[in-house]
Amino acid sequence: MMITILMGTYNGAKFIAEQIESILSQTEKDWKLIISDDCSTDATASIVSKYAEAYQDKMTFIVRDKPSGSAKNNFIHMLSLYESEYIMTCDQDDVWLPTKIELTMKKMREMEDKFGKEKPLLVHTDLKIVDANLKVMADSMFEYQNLDSGCSALNNLIVQNIVTGCTMMINRCLLDWIRDVPEESIMHDWWLAITASAFGHIGFVKEPTVLYRQHSNNEVGAKSAKSLSYNLQRLMELRKSELTLRKTYEQAKAFLDIYEQNLSVEQSVMIKAYTSLTTYGKLKRIYLINKYDFWKIGFARRCGQIFFI
Fold first, then answer.
1. Taking the domains of the chain in order of start, what are their residue ranges?
2. pTM to 2 decimals?
3. How far is CA 71 from CA 37, 58, 76, 130, 299, in A?
């Protein structure tokens, strides 16, 4: 068994050493860490280089010639380079709890025993939300954001992602399915989750395995979906909700274009129904959303859907 951990970095000097140390302190030792720096302008490369030199058997450092343009593109590039039995993805500013790899691998083994290694498999976990100084803000991201780990069916995931990439492990079979990731994909973890749901299985570890750090430079942050301020903000940002919704249509259409010959008839019909929602009148759209359960999780999210469907 070999686990490859992929970490994309960009101007992460403030927290990168703490994250690397948390990986080095894992109870599971059979892993290799690959770090790809996206042309940082701070001390990130210098810090990582020192660790890579000190732990040559555990780390490889890649410095890109030119910026990839986003964290998504950096991760997709790394995914195309490695063919390990298991792949994990990692953010530069979090902290992995000591048993993170061990618990994730345990769940992966359980799924392999149940479904077989020849099936695309993905495991993700809950997280603790912390501030920049690692003070706990919430013991569960899933509760904090009003998410449901059971919403991992394909009809759910084409509408809303519940998989947080920095907790994720995928097997080699799933990796083989996602060599071509289109520009329409919203994030790498979302695309992987959709693919795993369509052709394999998704497993969830309820125990938090990561301290998910909230700070001013987060590319994607976590916000409490239960707070009044959040829900009011969501209702006031309906334009943003509309754009996000339209991106999910584009992503679903791209997925269908690539994989239609591999999907079941029922899956194809369902995805086509979702991508064609904007071509129907309001009542027909609501009918199809109810029929295929295309609803997002939570009151504010559903209000955004209703307003723009």
1. 3-213, 228-308
2. 0.91
3. 10, 23, 9, 21, 30
Q: What is the Cα–Cα distance from 152 to 285, expressed in whole angstroms?
A: 22
The torsion of the CA quartet 305, 252, 269, 294, rounded to 10 degrees, works out to: -20
The answer to whether the beta carbons of residues 292 and 155 sit under 8 Å apart is yes
Rounded to whole angstroms, the Cα distance separating 165 from 188 reads 8
Phi then psi dihedrals of residue 258, to 5 deg = -80, -40
**Beta-ladder partners of 210:** 96
Q: 3-213: which CATH topology?
A: Spore Coat Polysaccharide Biosynthesis Protein SpsA; Chain A (3.90.550)
Q: How many Å apart are CA 71 and CA 256, to the nearest integer?
A: 24
Averaged pLDDT, groups of 10, the chain, 309 residues long:
92 98 98 95 97 97 85 86 91 98 98 97 99 97 95 97 97 90 93 98 99 76 57 60 87 97 98 95 93 90 74
